[in-house]
Amino acid sequence: NDAWATGNPVFKGSSLMFLKPGMQVPVSQLIRGINLQSGNDACVAMADFAAGSQDAFVGLMNSYVNALGLKNTHFQTVHGLDADGQYSSARDMALIGQALIRDVPNEYSIYKEKEFTFNGIRQLNRNGLLWDNSLNVDGIKTGHTDKAGYNLVASATEGQMRLISAVMGGRTFKGREAESKKLLTWGFRFFETVNPLKVGKEFASEPVWFGDSDRASLGVDKDVYLTIPRGRMKDLKASYVLNSSELHAPL
Question: Where is the Peptidase S11 D-Ala-D-Ala carboxypeptidase A C-terminal domain (predicted)?
Answer without folding.
Answer: 191-251
